[in-house]
Design a protein that fits this description.
There is one protein chain. About 20% of the residues lie in helices and about 35% in strands. It has 15 helices and 36 strands. Strands 8, 11, 12, 13, 15, 16 and 17 form a seven-stranded antiparallel β-sheet that branches. Strands 24, 27, 28, 29, 31, 32 and 33 form a seven-stranded antiparallel β-sheet that branches. Helix 5 runs antiparallel to helix 15. The relative contact order is 0.11.
Length: about 650
């Protein structure tokens, strides 16, 4: 059955009614999942396998029949490990129906159907008894219910229920325990992701509103690849603290709790940010450990096991506090059933602050962490101010089109007569009522452009559609800023990100190819023909071609009626494995001022790339990886078409004569 779905178009601003299959949401979920990343995580898989073998051996040593409960089985990998290790029977629970079907297929293909039962339910709905989903309670509990924050996927309530209803009182658990670590640091770079900083404009110092300064901010975790944050960009104010542990082999509570770590400040500074990660012990003795520590916490960073399904966490204190070297400090972590938050007290005040912070200024609800960083980017601000200074006149009438932008304030400080920022730009065309606000013709239409609904680089072309909608309000000699946008491409070899789209085939000796086939079917449904957004500053890559401009959008003109097409070739200049193409926008503010949403510096000789940390770039992954010689005999061919009616960009790439 197909249904009509209303979808807000992030590029055109229109509400598009499209016919979708009832399985569309499933396909999107599967195509953009990280199942492949988990199966490519060799460190994770090996540690789980070792822990499962040890747990099965301990139960057998007691003379008991081994019954395993695997919650969140995914592909069924951990259940197959358990049976191979000697388990008598496994109950594999998976709530996501397509994944449960894939697990059933994988279990059958590997010959374990007689010992593994896949149950397509949430674990809290599973029943035990002669007529239940499980015939008996399990004596080994195996789970993989964790996210970057450890408990964000509901691990605590799931464990709590399992111990009450699904497993024996003396059960073994893999993992056996988890430990959460944290370190208090000072970091101007990271703090700029949470608080708006003062801004200098032509000698005027713009201070953030008191409500923003005093706001505790949003409590949500900022999960990133902390290994890509240079150690020189933060100063540790204290040691790495063990905040709390959870023993999964015993009853677990999901009730809110707080824990305190006491230490002396190692140096004086401003306490702003808490860096956090966790590790899991697969056995009671802690001999089998899988850690999420960042690479710079390893004695040999080259041994760091990359993974994207579990990263590290950045938490922002409600307010920065000055601390002195040697001062006694109390770092407090609190949690409810799904999230963590941190606070800091001094020795004279040891009361634990258990209240969950919330945003009272609204800014933290409107602006994302990267958006805060973008607004605090001094070099970027200077580019916009210089561009505005070159075009504004005392009698300029300005209209700003961007979400949560500071450009109207900049224009006012630079002497603009009238500045207006409309709040009704989410409609495709103005109504007559809207037009009464504009009694003067607009002489400057400006935008960053930035829109909160934008995911892919070209979604910000919404500015172009807005410009077209207000064409009748523009003075004949009106200035448009930016005057144009150019879409760039570059072929890349990823250091690690390729794993999230690479087929697995076999994992720890088990055939998981049905999962590869399931993901490919979902990709073929639509997603394989599209790029996907990624913050490439977190994912090192090496350029195999030079940056190539492929489409230019002239904002001084209205959106055209006909599609805009571009095709051509770009030579491979680097030798390596070509995983895909990165795409980004560059905005021409004026004739001589351009800002890039992608590469921020020229590609280095060895191909190293530096990416804008405030915007996500587009990545078009190739279905198969091809080696390039870099000797100039191979080309990347491209064909891109911008459809002005949908705002979409269709793209196709090929290497030499082979379609990728």
């Amino acid at each position: 059955m197909k249904t009509f779905c209303g979808r807000a178009n992030p590029t055109t601003g229109a509400l598009d009614w499209v016919e979708e299959s009832e399985e569309y949401d499933y396909h999107q979920e599967i195509a953009r999942s990280c199942y492949a990343d988990m199966l490519h995580d060799k460190d994770r898989n090996e540690k789980y396998y070792q822990g499962i073998r040890a747990a099965v051996s301990r139960v057998k040593a007691r003379g008991e029949r081994v019954v395993v409960l695997d919650i969140g089985t995914g592909t069924g990998l951990l259940s197959m490990m358990a049976v191979t290790a000697g388990a008598d029977y496994c109950y594999a629970i998976e709530v996501f129906k397509p994944m449960a079907q894939a697990a059933t297929c994988i279990v059958e293909r590997n010959g374990f159907s007689d010992k593994i039962k896949v149950i397509n339910k949430h674990s809290t709905e599973v029943t035990v008894g002669p007529d239940g989903d499980m015939q008996e309670r399990a004596n080994i509990l195996v789970t993989e219910l964790f996210d970057t924050e450890l408990i964000g996927e509901g691990a605590l309530p799931s464990y709590e229920h399992a111990h009450m209803h699904l497993v024996q009182a003396d059960c073994e658990a893999v993992p056996h325990r988890a430990t959460v670590y944290a370190q208090l640091v000072e970091s101007d770079m990271l703090w700029k992701w949470s608080q708006l900083q003062p801004i200098e404009v032509d000698g005027n110092k713009l201070l953030p509103p008191p409500a923003v300064v005093k706001c505790a901010g949003a409590p949500s975790v900022c999960d990133i690849q902390l290994s890509q944050v240079p150690p020189e960009s933060f100063t540790p104010l204290g040691p790495i603290c063990t905040m709390f542990r959870v023993d999964f082999s015993k009853p677990v509570s999901s009730a809110a709790q707080s824990y305190t770590a006491q230490f002396k400040a190692q140096t004086s500074g401003r306490a702003q940010v808490v860096l956090s990660w966790w590790d899991i012990d697969m056995d009671p003795d802690g001999n089998i450990v899988c850690t999420m520590a960042p690479s710079w916490n390893y004695s040999d960073p080259h041994t760091y096991p990359w993974r994207d399904h579990w990263m590290q966490s950045v938490y922002f204190l409600p307010a920065e506090e000055n601390v002195s070297e040697g001062e006694e400090l109390n770092l407090i972590v609190s949690h409810d059933d799904y999230s963590l938050w941190y606070s800091l007290t001094h020795s004279q005040n040891i009361n634990m602050a258990t209240f969950r912070p919330c945003c009272t200024c609204q800014a933290h609800l409107v602006w994302t962490r990267p958006r805060f960083g973008e607004l605090n980017d001094e070099q970027r601000t200077e580019s916009y101010v210089n561009a505005l200074r070159s075009i504004l006149k005392p009698d300029s009438v300005c209209l700003s089109v961007s979400d949560g932008s500071l450009l109207p304030i900049f224009a006012h400080l630079l002497g603009s007569k009238k500045v207006r920022r409309p709040f009704f730009f989410r409609v495709k065309r103005f109504t007559n009522y809207d037009l009464i606000f504009f009694t003067l013709q607009i002489s400057v239409l400006m935008g960053e452009p930035y829109f909160s609904t934008s995911l892919l680089p070209w979604h910000s072309l919404f500015f172009w559609y807005c410009r077209t909608a207000v064409a009748q309000l523009l003075h004949p000699s009106a200035t448009i800023l930016p005057r144009a946008a150019t879409l760039y491409i570059i072929a890349v070899e990823f250091q690690d990100l390729w794993r999230i789209r690479a087929a697995c085939g076999t994992c720890e000796g088990f055939d998981v190819s049905p999962m590869d086939e399931m993901i490919q079917r979902s990709l073929d449904y639509r997603e394989s023909l599209e790029a996907e957004p990624h913050p490439l500053w977190e994912y090192p890559c090496r350029a195999l071609t030079k940056p190539c401009p492929v489409l230019t959008f002239d904002f001084t003109q209205c959106v055209p009626e006909q599609p805009v097409n571009s095709d051509g070739t770009v030579a491979f200049t680097g030798r390596g494995h070509c995983h895909g193409v990165a795409l980004w926008m560059e905005y021409q503010l004026t004739e001589d001022i351009t800002v890039s949403m992608g590469l921020t510096k020229p590609v280095r000789e060895e191909g190293a790339c530096e990416w804008n940390p405030h915007r996500k770039q587009g990545v078009f992954f190739f279905r198969s990886v091809r080696e390039t010689s870099g000797d100039g005999r191979e080309d990347l061919s491209y064909n891109l078409t911008f459809d002005p009616h949908t705002g979409d960009i269709k793209m196709n790439f090929s290497l030499s004569n082979d379609t990728l």
